[in-house]
Amino acid sequence: MESSTTRVLLQLHNHRHHKITHHFNLSRELTRHFNCQINPLNTISNSVFKPISIINQPISSHKTLFPYSPSATKFQVRASSNSPATAAIPTTVTMVKAIRVHELGGAEVLKWEDVEVGEPKEGEIRVRNKAIGLNFIDIYFRKGVYKAPTMPFTPGMEAVGEVVAVGPGLTGRQVGDLVAYAGSPMGSYAEEQVLPANRVVPLPPSVDPITAASVMLKGMTVHYLVRRSFKVEAGHTVLVHAAAGGVGSLLCQWANALGATVIGTVSTKEKALQAIEDGCHHVIIYKEEDFVSRVKEITGGQGVEVVYDSVGKDTFQGSLDCLKLRGYMVLYGQSSGTVDHIPLSALAVKSLFITRPTLMHYTTTRDELLEAAGELFANIASGVLRVHVNHKFLLSQAAEAQTALENRQMTGSVVLIPDASL
Ligand SMILES: NC(=O)c1ccc[n+]([C@@H]2O[C@H](COP(=O)([O-])OP(=O)(O)OC[C@H]3O[C@@H](n4cnc5c(N)ncnc54)[C@H](OP(=O)(O)O)[C@@H]3O)[C@@H](O)[C@H]2O)c1
Fold this sequence. Notes:
- This protein is of the alpha/beta class.
- It is built from ten helices and 17 strands.
- Strands 5, 6, 7, 8, 9, 16 and 17 form a seven-stranded mixed beta sheet that branches. Strands 12-11-10-13-14-15 form a six-stranded parallel beta sheet, with helices on both faces. The chain has a two-stranded antiparallel sheet with strand order 1-2.
């Protein structure tokens, strides 16, 4: 380390997104001015070095890198003007905290790390997350049931945040906007993330950010489940598995509001109470009772028009047995494991329909996205949907949250709150 400056390595991306490394000196005056010290691990020493954070964020949210600087507000490192790298490159990259997965496995593979967030490019925005929804799909990606597009990766598929930067030439979004999103790209378990502007929706003032973050993915899923994959109408009888879960709770309420008779399955008496509160006319504790015989009993042997099955392996065959003639099997998840291959002849028995839908395919266009989010927000604002945010965790404790979800200990929605925002 030099006496009056700290020599550090800056990593940037040029306009073609190539990584450029650049050495420069951080003056002692600057560090004094901000009352901070560079973490020695991040200084250059005899050509063994690690990059420091390139910060334009509140230093207080980067305590690992700047452990002695709680009072500073903003800190921006600029590459020196005589550097050959500075002409065509952005001068700042933001470091934030995020959960990262470097290898597939149990909840212990979720690591709390510093990551770079680049500047938004054309058509993109950078968002500082206020709340992040936890979903079972996050567990599938962590375990490798679904394949993540990159490795390592940041999990998370729904959040609400404030726009902190907009890409060049972007109109219609501005810094300070509150926006919500669900689905691709993955990466919401982070203090900040860059998103395509056309994948976010503005958050209406009628819905608070934590509520919205907890239902964007789950609620838009329920929208397509009851309105599009199978259209629920008054007079239908529907069977909803895991009725007290995140999706299940909203699904029972929405189907009830559409005039259906709702039968829900849950694993415990406590969950049964919530399912009844959410509009289930009949609740079956499927750990204690045979749900197929109970459904037959409830429907006078007829069966149901549709089964919404997110449990998969353990319930799938029974779900088929619960359907009436020409009934619809909507298999939209596999919390208990993936379903074995079934012969088409299994459907011929009752001329059944089967679909294995995913939200992404029902929100492919901007219009579809706005319609789904619009109906969801309207139903929350009007009280048709009562959102149970029953569990909140710090983002850094995502592993604990996922473990509890995986162990069936949760009801309703679960949100992660970025540590620095508390
Ligand atoms: N296809 C799509 O577009 C889409 C979108 C969103 C979600 N999903 C799916 O919807 C399902 C629900 O997601 P969520 O985030 O709201 O989770 P969740 O329903 O809150 O949690 C999963 C629930 O599944 C039940 N379950 C039954 N067997 C289980 C087992 N062996 N291990 C763990 N849980 C088991 C548990 O309820 P009980 O204790 O009451 O049995 C548990 O609480 C997931 O399968 C998810 O993949 C699909």
